[in-house]
Amino acid sequence: LQVGVIAGGQAVNIIAGHCTADIEVRAVPGVSPASLLEPVKARLFDLRDSGFEVAWHELSSYPALAPADGS
């Protein structure tokens, strides 16, 4: 799991009204990307119970590629 971009707010002394995070998950062969993302999504959506608005946009999903023999 890699958080590549986090953005939000206007200044360090002001509580941000919003925040966005761009994450990437790379699965290894035999592991589905969904099995890695589901716990992340579940935790994010748990934040709704605390009054946060949460949105999830999945841009792409594909299975891991196995390396070529001898690579």
Write up this protein:
- The protein has 71 residues and is α+β, with helices and mostly antiparallel strands.
- The protein has a domain at 31-60.
- Helix content is 20%, strand content 15%.
- The protein is built from one helix and two strands.
- The chain has one helix spanning 33-46, and strands at residues 2-7, 20-24.
- The radius of gyration is 16 Å and the shape is elongated.
- The mean pLDDT is 90.
- Spell out the helices and strands N to C: EEH
Backbone CA Rg: 16 Å
Query: What is the global morphology?
Result: elongated
Query: Main β-sheet: number of strands, strand sense, barrel status?
Result: 2 strands, antiparallel
* Total number of helices: 1
Arithmetic mean pLDDT: 90
| Percentage of residues in helical conformation | 10-25%
Determine the oligomeric state from the structure: single chain
What are the segments in which pLDDT stays under 50 over at least 5 consecutive residues? Answer: none
Strand content: 15-25%
Number of strands: 2
